[in-house]
Each structure stands twice: as C-alpha cells, then as structure tokens.
Amino acid sequence: MTCSRRDFLKEAVGGTLVSSLPLSAFVFLTTEEAEAAIAEAKVRWAFLVDTTTCTGCGLCVKACKTENEIPYEAPVTRTWVERYVVTKDGQTHIDSPLGGRDGFIDDKIRDEEIDPDNIDKAFFVPKLCNQCDNPACVQVCPVGATYQTHDGVVLIDREWCIGCGYCIMACPYGVRFFHPTAKVADKCNFCYHRISKGMQPACVECCSFGARRLANLEDPDDPVTKIIRTERVAVLKDEYGTKPHVFYIGLDEAVR
Amino acid sequence: MNEDVIVHGVEWTVKELFVYPNEFIYWSIQIVMYPYMTGLVAGAFVLSSLYHVFGKKELKEIAQFSLVFSLALLPVAALPLLLHLQQPLRAMEPLLTPHFTSAIAAFGIVFTAYGLIVLSEIWFVYRQYFVEQVYALKSEPGFANTLKRSVYRVLTIGAYDVSAGAVKVDKKAAKILAAIGIPVACFLHGYAGFIFGSVKANALWMSPLMPVIFIMSAVVSGIALCMLTYIIIMEWQAFWQRRRGGALAASEIKGAEVDVISSATRYLLGFLVAAISLELLDLIFRGYTAMKSWDILRSVMYGKDFMNIFVLQYTLGNLVPFVLLILPGRTMKRTVLALLLVLFGVFMMRWNVVIGGQAFSLSFSGYMHYEIPIIPHSMETFKEGLFGALTVIATPFVLFWVINQFVPSLRRNVEEN
User: Fold this and answer.
1) Does A140 touch chain B (CB under 8 A)?
2) B7 in reach of chain A (CB within 8 A)
3) Which residue in chain A is spatially nearest to B104 when comparing CA positions?
4) What's the first-to-final CA gap in chain A, in angstroms?
5) Residue A237 and residue B180: Cα distance in Å, rounded?
6) Across the strands, what pairs with A178?
7) A176 touching chain B per CB within 8 A
8) Which residues, 6 or more positions from B288, have their beta carbon under 8 angstroms from its beta carbon?
C-alpha cells in the first residue's frame, strides 16, 4: 500500500474535521421536532382550554410570566385566569386578581362576601391570545411590526414596533399590553420559541389538570385536534369576525 | 433586564368592577389632543378656502390670516402623536414601511401632502411680497435687516418676476391649490375619524358616521379658533392705535373686524348645526338598535359621563354658544364668549370619544376612569398629563408668531389679492 504525502495530509485534515464535530450534531429528533423544523410541514397551531378541569391554581400564569420575562409584579400578563360565580339572583361576579397569578385563595370577590348557598354555578376560565385567522391587530399595525406566521401564530417584532397602541385598541379580547420594560406591544404567542422547537408552551407544560393543550389543526392524528373536531367546543366573541383559534370546552354564556 | 418597570396606563387608570387585567386607558390626553389639533388645522384651511376658492370676499381678511395660522397649527397636529408613541425615535417608520391595511399608515403621507399644499399656497399668495421685501430691505442698514433680507431671498426661491402676468399666474396657482387643499384637509381629518370609527372592538367608536362627524366638528373648531385669534389680534391693534392717538385708524380696524366676524359666524353656525345633527343621529341610532353593547354604553353615557357629554359638551359647548350667536344684538364680547364655548365643546367631544371609548371594559362588565396626571413626576406623567396637553396647545401660537414675522398675515392692504 502506498500513501503519498498529499493523500496523507488530505486524510489527516478530513479526520481532524470529523472528530471535531460536536456530539450534539447527531441528536435524534422526535417526530414533532422534525415536523416543526421543516418549514413546509403543514402546521396550524390552535389551543384547547377545558374549563371543566381548570382549578384556578394560577400556575400557568406564573409559568408564563417567568418563561416570557414579563415583570412578575407588573399587573399585565400574557395569560390569565378569570373566576366566574353566578348567584341565584342571576348576577355574575367576575374577578381575576393579578391575572389569577397567585390562585383564588379568597372567597370574596372584590371584597364582597358571597354566600355559598346562594351560588348556582362557579368556574374558572383561562384566557390567552386567540391567534385569530383574521387578526384585527395585524390589520391595524401601521408599520407591519405585528404579523401572522405561516403556522397561524401572530408575532410582534420588538425592533420595529413604534408603540402606538393601535393593536391594543383593536383586539376585542384585551390580550395585548405594553411590555413594561421593552416599551412595545406584547402578547401571548403560544410560546413560539418553544413550540417551533417541538416543545409545549410553558402554561401547557405546567398545567397539572390538562386544562390547557396545544393542537396542530393540520394534523388529523393529533389527539387534541381530534377533540376539537369531534367534541362540542366554542370560541370567544366570534361576532367580531376575527376567527379565533383558542377553543373552549364547557364555555358558559356568562363568560365575557 | 432593565429595572425600569413602567406599566403604561397604571398611573392614571382606575378600574371598577371586572376589567380584563391588561386593559388600561392606553390612549389618553395626547390622543384627545391629536384629533382636536388636526381638526383646527383642517377647519382653518377650509375657512381660508372659502375666500380663495369660492370668492367669499367678505372673508378676505380672515382668509389670509387663517391660511398662515393653519400652517402654524400643522406641525402641532403631529406633536401629540409623537408625544404619545412609546418608541418616539421610530416615528418615521410609518413612512418607511407603511402597512396599508392600517388607517394610521397613511398619516405620514396625507400629512406631508397637506403640508406641501399649504406651504406652496402660502408661497404663491406671498411671493410678490417676498420680492418686494428683498428690494425694500436692500438700502436698509443694520445686521438684522441684512439677515431678514437673506431670509426673504431664500423665500423667493429665485423667482423675482413680479410682472402683471406673473402675479396673475400666482393667484391662479393659489386658487387651484386651495381647491385641492379642501378635500385633502377633509381627508386628513375625516381619516382621523376613520382611525376611531373602524375599531370594531370598541363599541362606542365603531360607526361609519365617525369620519363625517369629525370633519364637521373640525370645521366648527377651526373657524372658531381663527375667529377668536383674529378678534384678539384686531382688538390689540385697535388698542395700540388708540394709545398712539389714531382714533380714526382704531375705529376703522373695529369696523372691518365686525364685518368679518359677522360673516364668519354664519358659516360657523351652519357647520355647528351639521355636527350636532350627526352626533345626535349616532346617539339615537345606538339607543334604538340597542345592540349587545348598549347596556354598558347607556350606563356610561347617561350615568358616569352624563356631566361630560350632556352638560359640558352638548349644553355648554353647543347649545349655549348657538343661542349666544343667534340672538340679535350680538356684541364682540358675547361672540368671544360663544367662540370659547364652541372650542371647549369640540374639545369635550374629542374627550368623550377618546376617553369615553375607554371608559368601559371590553368585557362589558366593568369601568375604567381616567385621572389625568396634573403634577408630573416622570416623563410619562408629563407627556400624558395636563402639562403635555398645555405644551401642545401653546406651540401653534409660538409658531404663528415666528411665521408672522416673515409672512405678515395680519397686515391690512398688504396686497390686493
């Protein structure tokens, strides 16, 4: 066997390059990760909220604030939980102190004592951005800083938002606010940085009751998509024509 | 992470009953000022056009004044928006990357177009005067006069031809520009109404009548402000003439003033009636159709904001000045009072639209109150507080004074235009 000097050098350099590749280059992707990584893959993100299992613990709000760096003590939040108490006199009492961040540990609603025997029904309703198909916020942004991705999520470009607040005014669901430190519009994006890597949104991950679930509507085998397709689900405020994509199980007519 | 945590709106929003956590009064006093100032610009221009285009000779004096005044008001229409932006350094972006499905995207374009029209119209109206000044100041000694002459030389842009033919062309150009300016002025302001009227999420704002209501009230406020400023300046001039012993000149000024004001008042009353009719139509329609939002709207209009809407806006701002202006034996003092009330009424209308539209929660289950910051303790409370608004109000008068140094809109018999 002969080995010229040229061949030896060639193989030595090649061998060094290969051995210098990090191990992380050979990680096996899960199906979701692979799908999310391929841009052409058909994805339409949606969300399913089961109001019948939500206990109002507030863990989702905590997780969201931490994950998305929304100042913890600031009264604004990307997701929140509302408590509804419908009394026998037909009155609906609603509250969401600090967005329900610390849970609902007080029986009182805005310092008003409610007699437990007088309650017809009571439940919790988590809220988040509806990632509308026809988003009013995107329509009104004067500079195109908020936009819809190919997989249905509405995002905000923090480098380009001028902070006029028109999108905040245009959203019928009140999900938008000015970020307390970034000074631009902000809202829930289903934890886009996580779901585009095949992970679950922070609020979904931490919900112990399965009240929050992410769905890919383009995947007929997605178990959550199956529920949305086959069960009776509702959306919030469809009269605005925004085509919201957060679906609710057990949505009551009292819900605002 | 930056420790400077400021939640926009927390300072001045008081919530009552159930309001979504992220809801605050995001659009505060500066957004009240924005349509108010744009309205004044548009109104001032329409008043000047009544003379330039439609040849209403009786308005000649006030027409020149209001044309120059509308130029002074123009930058101030954009000032509240600049003060309101959370990222004011990015204010040029709507021009660089306009997103045309947004009503705001057109602002820069309409605003610039309108500004160019006003500027060029003024140039054509005053070109002859500029040229005359260049020659007149030539023999005058002193540094100030040299400086002033250089400014006039720049203002002529090298066009020194003041032959009869050239002046005729000037007049024709001014007339054409004034004619184009009317729809543009109306568009500038009607579109401010569209910004509000097209927000489908807001039950109070959403109405196709909003742009028309805005235009009508704009013309009302514009005419009122021009008349008021005109009266004050004329009274001031007459006062000085009297002190110098020129009683005859003083009474001449007074006489001219009375003529101008009584004819301008007729136009003011016409537009006032149109504005009120449309606003009442909107209100009646909402009550009659009684959509889902009517319950909360009614509780705001007839309850929480009753004082602001029915007492301050409709009665004190519309009805009282209407009666004051229409009753016979009108004096200048009574006119001034009526004009002040008209201006106040239009301001209250803007307030009731902008702040009133945010007085109830999107949940229809709670209310928000706006407590305007009086004493500022931060940049934010200055900008979105009383002093921010006062800054915006004061600026056009300062600008007018500066512009008037070179473009004398008030000098009578300056030119026989």
Assistant:
1) yes
2) yes
3) A142
4) 82
5) 43
6) A185
7) yes
8) none
- Residues of B (34-63) whose Cβ lies below 8 Å from A: none
Q: What is the dihedral of CA B394, B397, B400, B402, to 10 degrees?
A: -70
What's the Cα-to-Cα distance from B157 to each of B112, B137, B176, rounded to whole Å? 20, 17, 20
Residue with tokens 């309205």, as numbered in its chain = B39
Given a contact cutoff of 8 angstroms between Cβ atoms, the answer to whether B254 and B242 are in contact is no
Distance (Å, whole) CA A256 – CA B364: 8
B201 close to A171: Cβ distance less than 8 angstroms: yes
Token pair of A32 as six digits: 């979701």
**Residue A121 is encoded by which pair of tokens?**
């029904």
* ipTM score: 0.90
| A215: three-class secondary structure by DSSP | strand
Distances (CA, A) of B46 to A231, B180, B201: 60, 11, 33
| Exposure of A187 in the CB half-sphere (CA atoms within 13 A) | 29
User: What is the distance in angstroms between the Cα of A209 and the nearest Cα belonging to chain B?
Assistant: 23
Rounded to 10 deg, the angle between the B60-84 and B386-406 helix axes is: 140
Pairing status of strand A119-127 against strand A146-148: unpaired
* H or E stretch covering A133: none
Partners of A186 in beta bridges: A177
Domain architecture of chain B: domains with CATH? 14-404 (1.20.1630.10)
Q: How is residue A113 written in tokens?
A: 């004592």
CA distance A154 to A131: 6
Residue whose token pair is 């579109």: B191
**Domains along the sequence of chain A with CATH:** 69-127 (no CATH), 136-186 (3.30.70.20)
Per-residue pLDDT of chain A (256 residues; tens, 9 = 90+): 577 888 888 888 888 887 777 666 667 777 777 766 665 668 999 999 999 999 999 999 999 999 999 999 999 999 999 999 999 999 999 999 999 999 999 999 999 999 999 999 999 999 999 999 999 999 999 999 999 999 999 999 999 999 999 999 999 999 999 999 999 999 999 999 999 999 999 999 999 999 999 999 999 999 999 999 999 999 999 999 999 999 999 999 999 9
